[in-house]
Structures are given as C-alpha cells and as structure tokens.
Amino acid sequence: MINALRGMKDTLFPHNEVYMYVIDTCTKIARNYGFSFIETPILEETALFKRSVGESSDIVGKEMYQFRDKGDNDVCLRPEGTAGIVRAFIQEKYDKAGLSKRFFYHGPMFRYERPQKGRLRQFHQFGAESFGEANVREDATIILMIKAIFEALGIGYTLEINSLGCPACMPSYRTRLVSFLESVEGLCEDCERRKTTNPIRVLDCKNEHCQTLLQNAPLIVDHLCPTCQNDFETLKSILDRFGMVYRVNPKLVRGLDYYSKTAFEFVSSEIGAQSAIAGGGRYDRLVEFLDGKPTPAVGFAMGIERLMDLVKMPESKREGYYIAALCDEALPSVYTLVQQKRAIAQVLTSYEPKSLKNHLKAADKFYVKFCVCIGEDELANQTVWVKDLESKEERIMPIENF
Ligand code: HAM
C-alpha cells in the first residue's frame, strides 16, 4: 500500500468543511479590506527564494524541496508565498506603474522540516500582500484585518510586535550587536554560525542558555532612527485605539530575511509548541532586491492547519435537497429534476430506486433540508412527494410548482 509522504496530509471530512470555512471567512474579510485574489505557481526558480527569504535562513539553508527539472533548471517547491507574489508584481510591471496593489492568496507551501504536531512538510497558508503603501497605517490595517479574521473564526491569540529598523538605523545597530556577541562565550552552534551570517537572528534563539547569555544584548527598539521610532509609536497608538492587545517583543526577528520596520507574530497558547498561527511584517526593500523599482510593501500569512484545531464552526444548518426515485420508471424524471434544481441549490441524489424509508435515511445522513421522492403515483399525477426534515411537514405538490 502506498501512503502519503511523511509530514503531508489528506484533508477529508469533517476537516474539509473547516478548511473551506477558514478560506471563505478569510476571503470575505480580505475583500472587505480591498484585497483581490492572486494565484502564483507552486514551482519557482530556486534563486527567487535564495534572494528573498535569504540564504542564511533555515528555510533556504535546510528546508527547501529543491531539484533540477528535466530542462536542468534549478527549481523548488515554494516554501512561502511572498517571494512569488513579489516576482509576479515585478513581472507584470506594476512596480513601474507605481500603483498600489493588494493581493490575497491561499495554497500549499513546502518545507522539509521535522514533522510534529502543527508542523507539516506540506502545509497551507492564507496570506495577503500590500504594495505601494509606505504609511505605517497600512501595517496597522493588516494587523486589524487579522484581528477581524480571528474574531470571525472564534480564535483566541496574543500578538507580539517589534520594529526591525531601516537602512538608516539597522546597520549601526547591527555593528553594536556584533561587538556585543563577540564578547559573549558559550553560544550554541546555530548562534555561532548566525553571528556572521545574520546576527539579528541570534536574538530569537530558542536555546535557554543562549537567552541567559543574551540578557544584556543591545535591542533594536532602543536604537531606532526618528522615522522608525515615530512609525512604531503610530502603530502602537492605532492598535491601542482599536482595542488590540499586544506585547512589544524586542527579540522578535522572524525567520525570513526580508523584513524591515514592522514585524509581528500572532501566537496561540492552545496548540502546543508550534504556537505561531500568523506572522508578517513590512518588507520595503524586497521589490528592489528582486530587480524591481523600489516599492514599499507589507503583508502576512497564517497557517491554516494550525488554525483548524482552534476554529469554532457555526452551528451547521440543514441545507439543500435530496431527490430520488421510488421505482425504475421514475429515474429519468428524477435525473431531469436534479439537473434543473442544481442551477439554484445544492442537490444530492441516488441513481437507484429504493424504498421511501431508505431514501429518508440517506437524506438525513446528507443533512439536507428536504427529501423529495417520485414514485408510480407521483409519475401518473405529475407531482412530487416532499418532506421538510426540519419541521417534519410532508406534502405532495405539482412538479411544475416544485
Ligand atoms: P512564516 O512565519 O514563515 O511567514 O509562516 C506563516 C505561518 O505559516 C506561520 O505563522 C505558521 O502558522 C504557518 N507555518 C509555517 N511553517 C509551517 C509548517 N511547517 N507547518 C504548518 N504551518 C506552518 C511567511 O511565510 C511569510 N511569507 C509571511 C509574510 C507575508 N510576511 C510578509 N508577507
């Protein structure tokens, strides 16, 4: 027997219903916020992720599904959605047109991680990216949009925010941090490597011993330039005004290299160690890094599988019809009726004539509102037998009125 690969899952009933509900809810809210749907390929050139997510990140360094295709191109399954959307934005020359564009997307992402609860090798994200808006109010809007989504899905969370500075303040902070790190002994192997490749990532090392050594590390929030400082204050005051509770975590740096200024993460305390349910931030330099015209941008993505354990589904309602035949002769009429009714409603059916009792059982199992049957009498009189499975009311009506 062939099974799905490790860390990859099928989505079947009842989880498929939760999955669809999450996508529908996110889509509706993203549209209200002025975002429109974008779909980009799952397979991209490896160079795209190396240049955007960053060669020093774990995602690019250790976790990519990378291979050579039959044309000897170095390609990989996308580990995240932002890079492909930035590529599409530039390829469509939206950067040159200087337009503000807002996109939302959902679909599978691939990371060769060690699978555990909440951590898959193929997982799904819902995300949104906003291009062309340098104002920090857009960062606040993105965070408030996620708040609206989580409220609609009945999900509790805590929010952590940080500012990672900009080219005016980050380089001098980085030098300060590196000289601090050089004075520290006993950091783990990963931190020793990151000291040279990406020193800021040392700050969010999960190793407790490293965290004790880092207690007196300089923090970027204490070294922001006036513009970044001002933007960070504006962000916090908007969040305060909209009742959004947050914690400033000055060691939040995120695992992707493209961020500047705002970085944030939504965390749930109810799903175990893999607690990040959404993350994002501003990436004002990424369009330029990928050879586009400099364009400010900000976005986020949420992990759908992690949300699915937390979603409170609305009470399910009986919906639609089950239409079936009680005798062979009624099958053609039933088939026609089913096809007609499907233009306006959900209709389930059976191709086999059965007793009324069996059809009622099937209708109940499909959780439809109406069970509709045609037998010899109904055929002769051009009528249908209808039972409302909620009110239990039964009646016979002319087929043309149905
Ligand atoms: P990320 O933090 O790498 O950000 O991923 C976003 C979310 O995807 C995480 O918060 C988590 O819920 C989910 N996730 C990540 N890895 C896994 C996994 N192995 N299994 C299950 N769920 C996972 C990004 O991907 C950025 N592209 C977000 C962004 C968009 N930033 C700006 N725009």
Question: Rg to the nearest angstrom?
Answer: 27 Å
Could you give the order of strands across the largest sheet?
1-5-6-11-10-9-7-8
Average of per-residue pLDDT values: 96
Briefly note the structural class of the backbone.
alpha+beta
Largest sheet descriptor: 8 strands, mixed
The level of helicity is 25-40%
Poorly predicted ranges:
none
Shape, principal axes of CA atoms = elongated
- CATH homologous superfamily title of the largest domain: Bira Bifunctional Protein, Domain 2
DSSP strand content = 15-25%
Number of domains: 2
> What is the fold named in CATH at topology level of the largest domain?
BirA Bifunctional Protein, domain 2
Ends apart, CA distance between termini: 48 Å
Bound molecules: histidyl-adenosine monophosphate
Short overview:
The chain is α+β, with helices and mostly antiparallel strands and about 400 residues long.
Please provide a written account of the structure.
With 402 residues, this protein is an alpha+beta fold. The protein folds into 2 domains: 15-169 and 224-308, BirA Bifunctional Protein, domain 2, CATH 3.30.930; 321-398, Rossmann fold. The protein is built from 15 helices and 16 strands. It has an 8-stranded mixed beta sheet. It has a 5-stranded mixed beta sheet with strand order 13-12-14-15-16, with helices on both faces. A 3-stranded antiparallel beta sheet has the order 2-4-3. Strand 12 (321-325), helix 13 (331-341) and strand 13 (347-349) form a beta-alpha-beta unit. It is elongated. The mean pLDDT is 96. Histidyl-adenosine monophosphate binds at residues 80-82, 111, 113, 119-120, 123, 125, 127, 129, 255-256, 276-281, 283, 299-303, 305-306. Histidyl-adenosine monophosphate (HAM) binds at residues 80-82, 111, 113, 119-120, 123, 125, 127, 129, 255-256, 276-281, 283, 299-303, 305-306.
